[in-house]
Every structure is written in C-alpha cells, then in structure tokens.
Design brief:
The structure is a homodimer. The first copy, chain A, is an alpha+beta fold. Chain A has two domains: about 5-85, Glutaredoxin; about 90-200, Glutathione S-transferase Yfyf (Class Pi), Chain A, domain 2 (Up-down Bundle). Helix content of chain A is about 55%, strand content about 10%. The first copy, chain A, is built from ten helices and four strands. Chain A has a four-stranded mixed sheet, covered by helices on one side. In chain A, a hairpin with a 2-residue loop joins strand 3 and strand 4 (about 60-65). In chain A, helix 1 packs across helix 10 (about 200-205) and helix 4 runs antiparallel to helix 5 (about 125-150). The longest helix of chain A is centred in the middle third of the chain and has 29 residues, at about 90-120. Chain A is globular and about 45 Å long. Chain A starts with a strand and ends with a helix. The interface between A and B is medium-sized, with 31 and 31 residues. Chains A, B: This is glutathione transferase.
Chain lengths: ~210, ~210
Amino acid sequence: MAVKVYGFIGSNAVYRVLASLYEKNVDFEFITVNMVSREHKRPLFLARNPFGQVPAFEDGDLTLFESRAITKYVARKYADQGTELILKDPIQMAIQTVWMEVENQKFDRASWKLMEIAMGRVRGGPELVAEYEKKLSDVLDVYEARLKENKYLAGDGFTLADLHHQPNIYFLMSTRVKRLFESRPHVRAWVADILSRPAWLKLMAFSP
Amino acid sequence: MAVKVYGFIGSNAVYRVLASLYEKNVDFEFITVNMVSREHKRPLFLARNPFGQVPAFEDGDLTLFESRAITKYVARKYADQGTELILKDPIQMAIQTVWMEVENQKFDRASWKLMEIAMGRVRGGPELVAEYEKKLSDVLDVYEARLKENKYLAGDGFTLADLHHQPNIYFLMSTRVKRLFESRPHVRAWVADILSRPAWLKLMAFSP
C-alpha cells in the first residue's frame, strides 16, 4: 500500500515531503486538500494534523505531520534505497543535524518571511524587506564559507540538510531575492545543483 | 575527557543543552563566553559557531552548535544511560519527531518573540504582544488536547520533545505569559512536572 500525502501543489512544505519521496523512489498517493473550501480546518483533516496545515502523511495506521518530521521518517524507513538522506556514521550524522537545525532556525525563518511578503500575505514595507534580506544574507554568508569547503551542507553528499532548502529557494529564485543567492558563487553553484537534481525535476513535472 | 559547553548562564539555548547533559548524567566542562566583551563575535569563537551565538559544544575533535543538534547528539551518544531522550522504536521515534518539529516550528517561534519582548530586546506594543500571545495560545490548545491523552508530548515518557521546551517555559513562567500555561489544566500539570525534574533542578542550582 502506497504512502499517502495530503496537501496541495504550491505548498513549500508539501514539496519538501514529495522531494524526499522522489529521492527515495517511494510510490505515493497524493490527496489534494481543498484550501479554498477550507477543508484543512475541518474535523476530518484536523484529525490528521491538529494545526490544520498541509501536509499530512499516512503510512498504514501511522499518521504524521510537520514536513521535516515526515522527511526524516521517509529517510529512515527507506534507508536502503535511493539517495542516502541521513548519514549513518554518528559523527557525520551529528554534523548533518547541525545544518538541518540551521535550516530550521535560521534559513527558514528569514526566507519564509520573504516568501510571505512576495506572496502578499504579509504587508512588506521597505524596512521589513530590508530587515529580512539582511537576516537571509547573514545566513548565506555562513553558507558561502561552508560550501567553499564542502559540496553540500553536511559534506560530500546531498542529504536532508540540503533537501529541506529546496522549496523555499525554488520559490525565491523567481523573486528579486534571487540576487542574494546569485551574488555568492558557492551558494549559486549549490542552488543550481540542488534544483537540477532528477528527483526535483520529477517533482516539478508532477501533477496530481 | 569531559565534553565542553561554551555559553553563559541565562541563555535559553545553553540551558537546553545543559538539561540534556543532566538528564544523561554526563559530566561537562563549562566555559563562560563573555558576551559583554563580545567574545562570541571574535574569530576564536566564530570557529566554533560561525553564527557567533551560544552555545558551542566540543566532544574531543568534534565541534557542534545549534542547541537542538547538540541535545540530539548527546541523546544518541549516551543512549544507554540516564533518561531515554530519543525513543528507539521507529514508529514512536517518528511521533516524537513530529512534536520536536512542532516545538521548533511553532512553540519556539511564538514563545521566543514573547521572551524578546519581555527582555526588552524587541519593542513590544500591545498589538505585537496580542499577535504572539494568540500564536502561543493556538499552540497550547493543541498541546492541551495532546496532553489530555498522553502524559508527555511523545507519549508515556519524558523525551527531548519535552526537554526542548523547558528553557522558554521556565523563563515565561516569571512573566505575565504564565497565565496562558496556567489556564490549561493538562498543560499546567505538564509544566509543573517538567520543571520539577531532578535534572532541571540540578541545572537551576548550577553555577559555573
């Protein structure tokens, strides 16, 4: 029985989960949640995710939410197929975990606000844009130094530490925030690399 | 050789790491970072954490930062001693991971802003306070339902999913935000429980 993903196309958190499934060559069933009719705030969906947000995920009797919890489950359950998304060596895993936390605590907080402004969900005056572009630039300065020494954030190979960035970066590359990535050569090369992965391209071609 | 924690007393992220070490009965050496002289922005510290924030952590040659990455390393390395902070069963671990992500994505973002306002780091007009108290209340409503069915967030036992909350809750219990925890009976009981754990009380008595 295929795993089930509840969400809608266009949600960055849904893309995060689907990217992990494509990297792992895992078949899935996609169930579109109708946000316009506020299906995600109704009891049936709230039983899957009490925060009323997409995605939700089911594997048999197990229901999960929070995109990064789902990708970790997928990476562990299908450890022996597809891309090695979580490194097995305890030291390497610890270093990978650092960069996953950086994504969550630093990159996501800065980039998500800029996405919300670009989508018109948050009124973004010039001061707010400048504040969050500064936050994102500070993060990308650290990434530039890291990626000068390592091809990917966790080391030599693409892992969840990189994958978790894909959706927000993909979105921001169609906005003026793109210049913050492009102006840093190692960040630019990393972005080009992770957005041209076969799994990501398959996801871009996916239509439920 | 004891592990080393670089930080200062009063930092919630440092407390998070120390709480995990006390739960695991791991000896540590504490090195105070002088924030007043901006030691955390100097090259020696930036080599430990490129973001120039506490804590940093060393175990022999391994250097880590990001408090939640450090607690996970501690929980895995010392899996067989002290409190079982990461559940071993894959399904239980997946559920634990959901609640750890909720802490990171939802609880921390709402509670940290309220802490910054309380500390005077962020100008907190009534509108901003109301906005973030609403965000925190929405999270605590979900916790109330969860804790009605389970003693701890991940299930029957105290894990990192609970531990990661301790520092922010401890701080907020001395502010007017306390009422948001106190008004929800299962959240209130959980708060009383996690802040009276022997490891947390030892940490409260710690002085470098």
